[in-house]
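Field log, afternoon session.

UNIT: design team B
ACTIVITY: writing a sequence onto a fixed backbone
BACKBONE:
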């Protein structure tokens, strides 16, 4: 039996190391900017946490996410309307339950990182409510991704029935619209996935972004509003379909556990405090 010198083991070990290296996850996402896209103040958090926090005031953060990928740029959600930046006292809804603020226009935040709305090739919203679609018309030149049922509710005869404001989408009528029926791989490499998570609205969706250093994160939209809601499977009674909302939470809990994906909850101000904000970025 020959001695185990360099020539007898170097080739097999090299092949083994190469095979292991090929199994390492790769991503074509370069970075993601988390943009402050307003705040929503309430005098009673219990509308979102039934039976808990009754009469307690609270502040919901609101964020937009700009993803730089090797094949293009994508914006997820568009926040409160930029016009609110001219209203220092914010705008209160007719029910008096929420006052919305926009401290800095989204268009200005984009300029700070060298991006104009026309530069964004891909645009999607978690859903059509005003704090996520407030600036959607800025992105009429983008390819726009919506679940078919959400599209039909927004552009159908009764958008107000679902809490949608038609004026927020007027310029999208002529956009390149991609109607989805479930999961969609935006760049074709598994690094940015739109996943259907209905219930809050008919076609609510979430986004999974595989960051090069942080790993996969799921951007929640309004699947849940707070960490408490995620931990306790809490669904507000005003959701479009409460039972379906619960099923979406269950499905995404299974997905995040199986894939090691972090959940970033759009409106949870406390959780988002630890995430760098634009013009900084995360990788």
């Amino acid at each position: 039996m020959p001695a185990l010198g360099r020539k007898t083991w170097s080739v097999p070990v090299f092949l083994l190391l190469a095979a292991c290296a090929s199994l390492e996850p790769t991503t074509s996402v370069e970075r993601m900017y988390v943009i402050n896209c307003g705040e929503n103040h309430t005098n009673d958090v219990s509308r979102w946490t039934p039976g808990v926090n009754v009469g307690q005031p609270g502040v919901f953060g609101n964020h937009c996410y700009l993803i730089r990928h090797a094949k293009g740029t994508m914006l997820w959600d568009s926040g409160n309307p930029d016009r609110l930046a001219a209203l220092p006292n914010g705008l209160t809804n007719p029910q008096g339950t929420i006052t919305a603020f926009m401290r800095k226009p989204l268009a200005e935040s984009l300029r700070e990182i060298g991006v104009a709305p026309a530069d964004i090739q891909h645009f999607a919203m978690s859903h059509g409510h005003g704090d996520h679609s407030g600036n959607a018309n800025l992105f009429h030149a983008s390819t726009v991704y919506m679940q078919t049922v959400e599209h039909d509710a927004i552009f159908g005869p009764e958008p107000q029935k679902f809490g949608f404001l038609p004026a927020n989408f007027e310029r999208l009528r002529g956009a390149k619209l991609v109607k989805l029926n479930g999961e969609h791989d935006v760049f074709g490499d598994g690094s940015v996935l739109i996943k259907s998570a209905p219930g809050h609205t008919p076609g609510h969706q979430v986004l999974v972004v595989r960051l090069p250093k942080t790993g996969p994160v799921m951007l929640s939209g309004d699947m849940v509003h707070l960490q408490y809601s995620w931990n306790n499977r809490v669904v507000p009674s005003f959701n479009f379909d409460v039972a379906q909302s619960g099923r979406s939470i269950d499905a995404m809990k299974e997905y995040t556990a199986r894939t090691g994906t972090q959940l970033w909850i759009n409106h949870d101000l406390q959780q988002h405090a630890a995430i760098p904000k634009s013009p900084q970025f995360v990788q």
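LOG NOTE: The CA atoms of residues 45 and 56 lie 6 Å apart.
NEXT ACTIVITY: expression trials, pending approval
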